[in-house]
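User: Working on a comparison across species. This one is LysR family transcriptional regulator from Ameyamaea chiangmaiensis. Can you predict its structure so I can line it up against the others?
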Amino acid sequence: MLDGVSLDQLRCFVTAVEEGSFSAAARKLRRSQSVVSEMVGALEAQIGVVLFDRSGRYPRLTAQGTVLLTDARAIVGSVETLKARARGMASGLEAELSVVVDVFFPFEIMTAAAREFRARFPQVGLRLYSEALGAAYQPIFDGRAGLGIVGSLPSMPPGLTEERLGAVRLVMVAAHDHPLAAWDGLIPRAALAHHTQLVLTDRSDLSKGRDLGVMSSSTWRLADLFAKHAFLLDGLGWGGMPLHLVNGDIAAGRLVRLAIEDVPADGLLLPMSAVYPVSRPPGPAGRWLIERLRRCSEAGRLEHMTGARPWPGVPLPDPSEKPMESAG
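Assistant: Here's the predicted structure for LysR family transcriptional regulator from Ameyamaea chiangmaiensis:
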């Protein structure tokens, strides 16, 4: 009966194939050769299929055995995954880590961290959301994400705690054929009113009543950073963008950095933080991710952090400030 197939039988079958013989499989499994042989024979009897041709010196997989080997490996692998995940959960390791990442955060840093995360926590699922401004906090509030890698708001919403990770540099740009790109000298703020500023809209109410970085009375508002990028390239307005997203366009001459009155030539800084509920601090996997991203910041990989001023109304991170410890 197929219901009588055991994990032990499948493991003996798979190991015999991988090791090349019943005797080698017995050594690997620390069983006697006769036990391994009996296990495989019992499996063949129960499923009604000959898995090995035993006519030669060493058993060889039959055509049917080759087909069933894939299924046997999948079953054994799934059980091992279940056991490893259960061990991790018993020790406090998250079964899944859900993270919301601000669109301003350099995704090449996140993907590099995710690659290391997969190697270090192979049994932990990773779920990523991508949002902007206050909307990046919403998945944390509604429980879809336990951790946010987000841009700082003017005030931290209640119930959340943050750990500063560094800052992302923002620069003002326009298309190469936009009128502002040809401006000779520093652009006065009064002149900006004659040109449409492209502004990223906050899809939440967390920054309601506050326009961060808006300098023109004429605005077009977009809810997607990449739509804003496309509009900038097409000359439909000017606006601020993360430097790491437009460096290539500036180098290729598609976009031009604008020198604007009262805006430092080296750009503005948007502080980035790891944010999570005070009542639900990160487990081992989340804690590792925060520290991994902090090391990127300390190594200077968050865009050129030195010398720029904070976004108006948002405090600049103090590099000497001790990071906040996770709540108990």
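For your comparison, note: Confidence is low (pLDDT under 50) at residues 303-328.

User: Helpful, thanks.
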